[in-house]
């Protein structure tokens, strides 16, 4: 049985609820046939991966959703063999560069590389050479949280696509919509908690879990679920803001 968040994840650009103008521009880009390398960046949880998968579906159809895990053995120039795991469809290949330390051959039409900002400078220069070598047969989609650690030669060879996090008003509107569609508030709370725990810093996880338990208890007592859901979201934002400010102060001293 699939997770609730995966079951209802948008599967096409037309179904995306946020940044609809950007989705239209991406659809036009695909339809015109001029598909460049892409550098998709934005904060964790903003929907970068969802948007990329919608783009691939626009390119190749529903086949991109038929994913399989593949294990490949790569022989390095020093004759050392390393094994990497990839997620692939018949049309694209997804690789996390932090799992490997050497260049792999490009077999698919599109290669999706996540966490590109965590690559070393040498690895990024090797990636830039790979982009040039396979430009005629392959397209790369690079995904990262920030472009500040991505070297300029890579940025200049890609079309930058910024996926910003939804605004407070957009989040509130979505909460209202979920409630009006009879999604139980407890399910909404648990889904929010799951996503936050997957993306927030380890030091915050205990506080976030305790806070979620508190507001879930309030849900059982109150009559207006939206108030408690909004309070949970606002409280998390306040805690995370304070955490970031404390981190910046610690770096300055």
Automatic annotation (TrEMBL):
<keyword id="KW-0235">DNA replication</keyword>
<dbReference type="Pfam" id="PF22534">
    <property type="entry name" value="RFC_C"/>
</dbReference>
<dbReference type="GO" id="GO:0006261">
    <property type="term" value="P:DNA-templated DNA replication"/>
</dbReference>
<protein>
    <recommendedName>
        <fullName>Replication factor C subunit 3</fullName>
    </recommendedName>
</protein>
<dbReference type="GO" id="GO:0005663">
    <property type="term" value="C:DNA replication factor C complex"/>
</dbReference>
<dbReference type="Pfam" id="PF13177">
    <property type="entry name" value="DNA_pol3_delta2"/>
</dbReference>
<dbReference type="InterPro" id="IPR050238">
    <property type="entry name" value="DNA_Rep/Repair_Clamp_Loader"/>
</dbReference>
<dbReference type="GO" id="GO:0006281">
    <property type="term" value="P:DNA repair"/>
</dbReference>
<dbReference type="Pfam" id="PF03215">
    <property type="entry name" value="Rad17"/>
</dbReference>
<dbReference type="GO" id="GO:0005634">
    <property type="term" value="C:nucleus"/>
</dbReference>
<dbReference type="GO" id="GO:0003689">
    <property type="term" value="F:DNA clamp loader activity"/>
</dbReference>
<dbReference type="InterPro" id="IPR027417">
    <property type="entry name" value="P-loop_NTPase"/>
</dbReference>
């Amino acid at each position: 049985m699939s997770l609730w968040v995966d079951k209802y994840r948008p599967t096409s650009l037309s179904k995306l609820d946020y940044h609809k103008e950007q989705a239209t521009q991406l659809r036009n880009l695909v339809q015109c046939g001029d598909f460049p390398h892409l550098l998709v960046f934005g904060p964790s949880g903003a929907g970068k991966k969802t948007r990329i998968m919608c783009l691939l579906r626009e390119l190749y159809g529903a086949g991109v959703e038929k994913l399989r895990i593949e294990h490949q053995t790569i022989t390095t120039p020093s004759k050392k063999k390393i094994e990497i795991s990839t997620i692939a469809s018949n049309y694209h290949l997804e690789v996390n560069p932090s799992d490997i330390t050497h260049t792999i051959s490009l077999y698919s039409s599109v290669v999706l590389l996540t966490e590109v900002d965590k690559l070393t400078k040498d690895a990024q220069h090797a990636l830039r050479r790979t982009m040039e070598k396979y430009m005629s047969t392959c397209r790369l989609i690079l995904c990262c949280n920030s472009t500040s650690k991505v070297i300029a030669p890579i940025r200049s060879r890609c079309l930058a696509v910024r996926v910003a996090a939804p605004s407070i008003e957009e989040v509130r509107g979505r909460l209202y919509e979920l409630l009006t569609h009879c999604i139980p508030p407890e399910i909404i709370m648990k889904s929010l908690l799951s996503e936050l725990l997957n993306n927030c810093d380890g030091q915050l996880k205990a506080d976030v879990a305790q806070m979620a338990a508190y507001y879930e208890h309030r849900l059982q007592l109150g009559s207006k679920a939206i108030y408690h859901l909004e309070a949970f979201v606002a409280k998390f934002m306040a805690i995370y803001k304070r955490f970031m400010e404390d981190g910046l102060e610690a770096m300055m001293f």
